[in-house]
Amino acid sequence: MTPPTTILLPTTTHSPVIEEIATQLDPSDELLIICDDESDPVADYGEGVQNVQVVVAGEPTGCSGKANALATGMDKATHDRIVWTDDDFHHPSDWLAAFHEAYDEKGPVSELYFFVGSDVLSTLLEPIYAIGGTLGTYANNKPWGGAVMFERDDLDWESFLRNLQRTVSDDQLLSEYLDTTTLKRIRQVEIGGTIRETLERHVRFTQIIHQHNPRDTIVMGLITSLLALFCLLSPVYAGVCVTLLAAGLYAYFGIYRWTALLSYPAIILQVPLMIYALSRNTFVWGGRRYRWRSKFKVEIIT
């Protein structure tokens, strides 16, 4: 028998994911839909719906909107077992039950993402996100904030909540507090929209690594530069090698997309994109512009 569980879903819209999760709840579970403001479209959802409640987080101060929403939800949670999830991927009918089964066997667990591009730039960068994101997260057992299950006693709850409310990246901070097992269970997440949005997202991804693990930024930059140099000096051999590497990685995670063929130009493009991302001092996420001065010093500009 699974324990009562609180599921935290930050969203401002009437996402179909709400219904996908609500139908999986046990009578003792609760789904907290966390929005920013009472004017958000989803703010009136849950009136009279059993086990579903809308929580208004308010405007963030000194942290990202996502971090603020999750901190508010964790403060409101009434159960010890907690699930974080997002509204941008499909939750199959056995999603929550499979999560409980995995937790009971392994302790804190996280699923895995694969970013699917929806504009020219995000599509081109799919192999980069697969190698650096999907593979890196899986190999290092990092939690993904889009699908992670843990309990209160699994981390220093109070300290984590304090720090969550003064930073940007919810899951990167969680990885510093929580030892997880990352399951080889892929959720495809569509990203992009416009080239501008993809650039802003790439800046955020790069800044997350830079602010939390500055040494990793150096290592990542060195490896990326060497790979790009290899591609430029030996285009035929390098093109075959990196394409086969990407195709093998895709197949390992059960992803069969033609974008593995883009690994060669993506690796070359990653060098100027990384320089661009590190040179930027602001980025836009969820309609807000942030200046992230250090890990726990976040300024919201608009």
Automatic annotation (TrEMBL):
It is a multi-pass membrane protein. One of its GO terms (biological process) is glucosylceramide biosynthetic process. InterPro entries: Ceramide_glucosylTrfase, Nucleotide-diphossugar_trans. One of its GO terms (molecular function) is ceramide glucosyltransferase activity. The chain crosses the membrane at residues 219-252, 258-279. The keyword Transmembrane applies. The keyword Transmembrane applies. Pathway: Sphingolipid metabolism; Lipid metabolism; sphingolipid metabolism. It is found in: Membrane. Keywords: Glycosyltransferase, Membrane, Transferase, Transmembrane, Transmembrane helix. One of its GO terms (cellular component) is membrane. This is Glycosyltransferase, catalytic subunit of cellulose synthase and poly-beta-1,6-N-acetylglucosamine synthase.
